[in-house]
Amino acid sequence: MLSSTTRARLRSPLSLALAGLVVLVLLAAVLGRLGGGSGDPPGAAAPPVSTRSGDPTGAPSSSSGTPTDSATGGTVPPPYVAAAPPPIAPKPQLPGGGYQVFAQHRFLVAYYGTAQTASMGVLGDSDPDTMFHRLMRAARPFARPGEHIQPVFELIVTVADGGPGPDHVFSHDIPRGLVAQYVRAAHRHGALLLLDLQTGRAPFPVVAKRWAWALSKPWVGLALDPEWRMGPHQVPGQVIGHVSAAEVNRTSRWLSRLVTRDQLPQKLFVLHQFRLSMLPDIGRIVHRPGLAMVQHTDGFGTRGQKLATYHAVARPHQFRQGFKLFYHWDVHRFTPQEVRRIRPRVSFVSYQ
Fold first, then answer.
1. Which residues make Cβ contacts (< 8 Å) with residue 246, sequence separation at least 6?
2. CB neighbours of residue 346 within 10 Å
3. Which terminus of the chain, N or C, has less C-beta within 10 A?
4. Beta bridge partner(s), residue 222
5. What is the pLDDT of residues 281-330, one digit of tens each?
6. Nearest-CA neighbor of 350 among 154, 189, 190?
7. What is the pLDDT of residue 93?
8. What is the 3-state secondary structure (H, E, C) of 72-139?
9. Between these two residues, 13 and 125, which has the higher pLDDT value?
10. Which residues pair with 110 in a beta bridge?
11. Residue 106 bridge partners (DSSP)
């Protein structure tokens, strides 16, 4: 039994306050154990509850269990998955595949001329589709085992004139619509298209840039014909023209940059020649990345005359070699088998 002194002390305000504090501490401890796990400290907050079992993001899930974005309704990738970069566009290839004109054992055979007239070469004798089939018949005898015959349309798109014309440059461009027909036909048939320039008094780089819209196609290349590149006072047809290596190099530099800029496959780049004077400093012509450079020997006559011209101008250490056959002006025209036996070796034959 408590003494009267003890009961008096328990009734004092300070004692009552201390007793109440003890009771509150004990009550808080009991409640903490009821709300948390057995290992949780008193007062620890419960962990957040995921809306999907195993989803660490807490994102709402679809009926299939995939997290969804509540704002857009789209699926939400797990946080450890990185977004894929945009797909890389494949680099365009040449007809038949690949990126090098003379790779895959290609041997090139062309029909040469301009559109809608056969007066400048066989290519204009009929429409592009008809001429493609005729070209393939002419090209087949050049084939050797393991080789691929690559058909080529060599289209004169800038034609030299005997008169000055409105621009006083003694040349004109054929209509763009006609060139577009050959661009499409070449693509349709897996052929290369070679744009041939006879610029009169106009510089080759200036004229070439007018055809950039076609040269941006992977299957379209460029040919320069110095025979028709006139000096300031010369007239086409009255003299044989010429071009400096510096002008050729400016043209090839522009074309090479176009290849690089548009990530195009290698382009055919052809220089026509049948006299040394047409390319007087040919040794200074620079090779450009992205261009397959060909020195193409023209000139008609007997077999002996043509071979003499070829051996006089050919520079096989500097270029691949081309050779022209004339349907009407050659005397005892070379057969395909005889052309294949010519040395230095020929890689590109064209018919005019």
1. 284
2. 24
3. N
4. 195, 269
5. 999 999 999 999 999 999 999 999 999 999 999 999 999 999 999 999 99
6. 154
7. 97
8. CCCECCCCCCCCCCCCCCCCCCCCCCCCCCCCCCEEEEEEEEECCECCCCHHHHCCHHHHHHHHHHHH
9. 125
10. 152, 350
11. 148
pLDDT in tens, 147-182: 999 999 999 999 999 999 999 999 999 999 999 999
Cα separation of 325 and 333, whole Å? 7
Whole-angstrom Cα Rg for the chain? 41
Q: Which of 206, 255, 196, 205 is nearest to 228 (CA)?
A: 196
DSSP secondary structure string for all residues of 234-258: --BTTB-----HHHHHHHHHHHHHH
Q: Identify the residue whose tokens are 């400290």.
A: 41
Entry field: residues in the chain: 352
**pLDDT confidence of residue 68:** 53
Helix, strand and coil content of the chain, in percent to the nearest 5, comes to 35, 20, 45
Q: Would you call 147 helix, strand, or coil by DSSP?
A: coil
**Separation of alpha carbons 156 and 116, rounded Å:** 11
Q: What are the E-state strand segments in 105-228?
A: 106-113, 148-160, 171-173, 192-197, 220-224
84 — pLDDT class (breaks 50, 70, 90)? confident
Q: Are 158 and 194 in contact (CB under 8 A)?
A: no
* Confidence (pLDDT) at 78: 72
223 neighbors 154 (Cβ within 8 angstroms): yes
Can you tell me the distance from the alpha carbon of 241 to that of 320, in angstroms, rounded to the nearest whole number? 23
Contact 331, 302 (CB under 8 A): yes
Which residue type does 84 have?
A
Identify the CA nearest to 139 among candidates 104, 113, 101, 109.
109
Q: Which of 245, 233, 248 is nearest to 170 (CA)?
A: 233
Alpha-carbon gap, residue 121 to 267, rounded angstroms: 23
- Please spell the DSSP secondary structure of 9-61, one letter per residue: HHTSHHHHHHHHHHHHHHHHHHHHHHHS-TTSPTTPPPPPPPSSTT-TT---B
